[in-house]
Amino acid sequence: LLKSLFSREEIDPEGFREEKWQADFSSPRRARFAEETGDSHEAVLGRRGLELRLKKRNVFAWAENPIYRYADSVIDAEIDFPERPPYSAAGILFRYSDAASYCSVLVSTKGFFRIESVFNGTPMPLVAWTELAPGTDLSKPVHLKIIALGDRLTLVVNGEWAAEVADATLSAGHVAFAAANYGEADNAEARLLSFRVDSRPIDVEAA
């Protein structure tokens, strides 16, 4: 897949990248996120973004951007839920090593956010489910800014500071769009409308 999509560029999936990049979801090559289909979920690219459809109850799944690894970085993502969604959540995995080791930021359809670090399959909540700022309208897209600098993780939601924590468990990794279905309905979905990452050291320090 990587060879066919990115044959014009030499790709080292385990290499570190210092860049400012924005996903173009109208093109698989420029989106970088991988489409996939399985029994529990599917990820579909389109001009309106990357849609993650969960096809079972109590499912947590993601669509990975497998091209480069990032250490310190600023991630900007815009996430959208369908009208009147079941209890579910969506967000970003970063410093992703594998299915058992990553950091995550999730926003739920009930108006809460969570920051978690998972290492070797052991979850370590950094910020338990916490209510978003009063007046947050989840019928509109939610903008997440994640600033990962050394062991400091800062989250900004819709332009407002939400949390800052320290976690030195993971220092680098890939990124992914994630969603969870908490069992109110057989199906749930969320869409990643836009995604940007800036891993240039000076710009991360400035942020």
Could you characterize the architecture of this molecule?
7% of the residues lie in helices and 56% in strands. With 207 residues, it is mainly β. Strands 1, 2, 3, 4, 6, 11, 12, 13 and 15 form a nine-stranded antiparallel β-sheet that branches. A hairpin with a 2-residue loop joins β11 and β12. It is globular. The N and C termini lie far apart (34 Å). Mean pLDDT is 92; it is low at 1-8.
Strand count, sense and closure of the main sheet?
9 strands, antiparallel
Distance between the termini: 34 Å
What is the number of helical segments per DSSP (H or I, 4+ residues)?
3
Into which percentage range does the β-strand content fall?
over 45%
Helix proportion range:
under 10%
Shape summary: globular
Gyration radius, rounded:
16 Å
Q: Topology, pairings included?
A:
Blueprint: H1 2-5, E1 20-22, H2 28-31, E2 36-37, E3 41-46, E4 49-54, E5 59-70, E6 73-80, E7 88-98, E8 101-108, E9 112-119, E10 122-131, E11 142-149, E12 152-157, E13 160-166, E14 173-181, E15 188-198, H3 201-206
Antiparallel strand pairs: 1-15, 2-3, 3-4, 4-15, 5-14, 6-11, 6-15, 7-8, 7-14, 8-9, 9-10, 11-12, 12-13
Question: What's the gist of this structure?
Answer:
By secondary structure, the chain is mainly beta. 7% of the residues lie in helices and 56% in strands.
What keyword list fits this structure?
single chain; 207 residues; mainly beta; nine-stranded antiparallel sheet; six-stranded antiparallel sheet; 15 strands; 7% helix; globular; disordered N terminus
